[in-house]
Design a protein that fits this description.
Blueprint: H1 5-15, H2 20-24, H3 27-44, H4 52-65, H5 68-74, E1 79-82, E2 86-89, H6 108-118
Antiparallel strand pairs: 1-2
Helix pairs in contact: 1-4, 3-4, 4-6
Length: about 130
């Protein structure tokens, strides 16, 4: 999987709302996020063709999830601050391990793009049987 960072930049700048964490990332980090997004989607939906746009959508979500502040929360930091500048407090119980089931973090728009590419409907919602 070879993804071109300028193509990802152009797509994310045009199609995503929250792009600050993506644009603040260096080339090496963007490459890692694209590789993780691509491999996760390929493993999760191996029988489908994965369009680059779906990878770019997921890579942008990864950039947000693994920015410096949220990474501290995932590592168990409950509060931090700079004296006289700002303080940040994280809510209790909101931490998660960085690599908890990545498939749960795939945005629906990426699933929609995969579905459009393959002529199917893909949803994260699971069917549950109910006995009455």
């Amino acid at each position: 999987m070879n993804y071109v960072i300028p193509d990802a930049d152009a797509y994310i700048n045009a199609n995503c709302i929250d792009i600050e964490d993506w644009t603040a990332s260096d080339t090496a980090k963007k490459t890692r996020m694209l590789n993780v997004a691509g491999s996760t989607l390929t493993r999760a939906y191996s029988k489908y063709t994965i369009p680059n746009a779906a990878v770019y959508e997921f890579a942008n979500v990864l950039a947000i999830m693994y920015n410096d502040m949220l990474r501290m929360q995932q590592q168990g930091v409950s509060t931090f601050g700079l004296t006289g500048v700002f303080n940040v407090n994280f809510k209790d119980g909101t931490t998660s391990m960085p690599y908890d089931d990545m498939r749960k973090k795939i945005p629906q728009v990426a699933l929609d793009l995969i579905g459009e590419e393959n002529g199917v409907k893909i949803s994260r919602r699971a069917w549950k049987s109910v006995i009455l």
